[in-house]
Amino acid sequence: MPTANTSRPALSVSRTRTELLVALAARAVPPLWPLDGAIAVNPLAGLEEQPFADALRDGALLFDARANLPLSLWRRLASRDGLTRAEVRGVAIERLGGPTDAFELLGPDISLVDCVLARLFDLPADAEPALRKDPNAALLAKWCGAFFDGGQAATAMPGRSSGLWQAATALLRHDDEFRAFSEADRLLSDCPTDPVVAVENGLAALHVSPDDRLAVLTRLVARLPGWAGHIRWRTDHADPGVRQQAPATMADLLALWLLLEQASGRDEPVADVELQLSTEMALANHFGFPPGDGGPLLARAAAMAEAELGLIFQIAAERRYRDRLLAELTGSDAQATRTRPDAQLVFCIDVRSEPFRRAIEAEGDYETAGYAGFFGLPIAIHPPGAARIRQLPVLVAPQHNLALQPVAGREEQAREELAGQRRATTAADLFGRLKSGSATEFTIAEATGPLGAALMVLNTLFPLVARRLAARWSGTGSALAPSLAATGACSGLTVAERVGYARALFTLTGLSRATARLVVLTGHRGETVNNPYGTALDCGACAGHAGGPNARVLAAILNDPDVRAALEEDGALPLDSWFVAAEHNTTTDEVALFDTHLLPASHRPDLAKLEVALVRAGDANRRRRAATLPRSPDDCATGAAHWGEVRPEWGLTGNAAFIVAPRTFTREVDLDGRSFLHSYDWRTDDGGEALATILTAPMVVAQWINCQYLFSTIDNRRYGAGDKTVQNPTGRLGVVRGNGGDLCVGLPYQSLFHDDGTPAHVPQRLLTAVLAPLARVRAVVESQEVLRRLFDNGWVQLVVIDPTTGERRRWQTDADAGDRDPYANLEER
Amino acid sequence: MSDVTDTLQLHAMRKLEAVVHAEDRSLVENALRDAGLSGWSMIRDVAGMGHTGFHQGRTVFSDETGLVMFVGVGTAAIVARATDSLAGVFEHRPGVLFVSQVEVMRSNYFGAA
């Protein structure tokens, strides 16, 4: 029911309209999560309502970015991956409007498509445009850095509690860079205190017409995507305590932008100079005819932007991958359980799980399944004396708060670990304060210099020793686990809630309740030091944190006698089934098993056998991964511990497909660590509810990851984070290049490119393959707006494989009607 | 009117119902709050048939998908301000709006003087 009357006075319609424009403009950028829980996002999420090709073009204009990978790099990829001229030609014909247009002749034996292919493969590519300097953005970024500092600076910016707009305008009176503008003092004296009013005033002062206001505000948001994204995170996702430390809204940022624009004059980007004429000359020279003979067809071939040419390469690469993958996917749809396997292991859907799953399956009678890495648990964890940690996808708000508590039987070790963690935190804080204190900075350098030198030698020459010492100093934390019980302010989980999450595992994955004696729930994490992007290697479904805690919670739930009793209503688990939590270290391929001291003695032989198999699987996967880095298998652990390592692992580089099917369907195929695998059995999901959940949540997260990798590769300067070697963490929030500027968005260069500059990640859109009846998939997609948007606009490509007929159909996008794609449209039944 | 009406002291007010995409809920909340509406109900995961086809309601792991319905009651002046603001939202975003005459008890809950 409506709540009691606590309303504030009504605001003017004009102000409300301005607030709306600010809110809409804010959508130009996605939220940017801080470094302690980096989340992959699509930098063009604000353009997802457009077809993919249009969004590439408009995003490039909005963010001053490339619209596709440079042709020179596409040529390298085509050569490396064997993408043929004929494959690219087929796509070029479609993009030119079909054979009639494509084969129109410019002269004897020279058609329009020949010219386009010459541009794609033979002519020199356009020069890389220089990155436009934006001094206003740099100035604004400086104020944002000071305002949002999370404790890195020795002195906090004054007046933060009054908000970004008021605090920054107070500071500006003392900022020589700003006061260099002739109108600076007058503008500051006229500033209103309300940032929304300041936006209204700024737009009016700049004579922006009402029809142009949203576009102008959107462009300003996009000129500083890092800090704007940080503000979006604060307003939409941060806990209230964090927001209150440095209150800021997008209106604050835009008010400052408009103040700067008034002071300095409008600073609109300059369009690139058209190179069409020189391209016509180059084409004519290539084919040996006078440029004047080419006519409008030559002009059309020359006018195609590199972005459009890059898209032709991209589509050809996507189709090649799709056709090869679907040709290989001929596995059985049979129910997984034949005889009872030695153990079952449930992994996160992360692409790095697939090769490890294949490796462990090769070690014995082991079955594996894929499930979202937060194991369906919308939880936040409260460590003692620290802020809560969200362990769930950012699509969902935490519904349960669980206290981190000592594990039964390991209380003494938990006490030691807590003491170690406090010791490490206290020492780091004390050193930080002394290092930045005016009276202590020199003495601390002298006092700790020898120790610092020793640590430097240790970290450089003996990183594995440093790793062991660090673990001994601060503890591993394994003796503490999230408690299912209500504790203090933490709600815990009721039995009914536990039963619900237990059932969801079986409902969503299609896993049979005839489980093995051992079922291992395996989260994952990366391991790296001195790496601001370390959390990008952790579990995305756990909000950029290690997945072990969630695995421990679900294992505890499934071992709970009350839960087991409740499950008897609709399918009991075997009495001798025991659930064990584990965590796959994706950097070293070691698997840690948790709480095994709780395992019944009867299961110890099973566990011992499994531990041997996990070690052997880790060895095999490490050998495979080491070859791609390239380094020796033993060097993987060194990379995880070395403070100079810029590429401890490839993360999710190469991600390309999201497969929704039982493992039996994919088990015989080497998917090369490029596929998210979500287990699903259409026979246990008559209503399509499980499929709807899989496609609207895990697949959407996979699409964010895919788009982050895609765009970070296409333009690493604007959509990515650039070279790691020049990055500096700022304000404990993000990373800047050099000593200031905007927060970096996206992924660093070293995560995506080989040392010789060849992309390790092929920028291609996610291919989703679903093994389910065509009608069911169609019903699910048509009833979910988010799916229609992604599939209709071509952000994700959907192929459905009918389990009974084997028929394969694709979801046709709005843009590709009439193309020559070999798969029939899903709609055409 | 029934006997209950006589004893309950009902007051004429206006009711506003808006259905929008979940991702747009903050835009509607701002519009209602700025108009001076004292409170509203929010019904998540609204299912039903619309002009673009059937909208499924329930999703398990996403707060960002599906439709949300707002139901608010206020004086004619407040609801007029709210609809004026919502008109701005619907210039840019999809959604539907219904306004109707209702009678309420405890009119002081709904912004009446």
Q: Looking across the biggest beta sheet of chain B, what order are the strands in?
A: 2-5-1-6
- The coarse silhouette of chain A is globular
The number of strands of chain A is 19
How far apart are the first and last residues' alpha carbons of chain A, in Å?
46 Å
Question: What is the overall number of helices of chain A?
Answer: 32
Structural class of chain A: alpha/beta
Largest interface comes to:
A-B, 42 and 44 residues
* DSSP helix fraction of chain A: 40-55%
Radius of gyration of chain A: 28 Å
Low-confidence blocks of residues of chain B: none
Beta content of chain B = 35-45%
Shape by Cα distribution of chain B: globular
Query: What share of residues of chain B is helical?
Result: 25-40%
Could you give the order of strands across the largest sheet of chain A? 13-12-16-17-18-19
Tell me the β content of chain A.
5-15%
Biggest pleated sheet of chain B: 4 strands, antiparallel
Rg from alpha-carbon coordinates of chain B = 16 Å
For the structure shown, list the relevant keywords:
heterodimer, A: 829 residues, alpha/beta, six-stranded mixed β-sheet, globular, B: 113 residues, alpha+beta, four-stranded antiparallel β-sheet, two-stranded antiparallel sheet, 3 helices, 30% helix
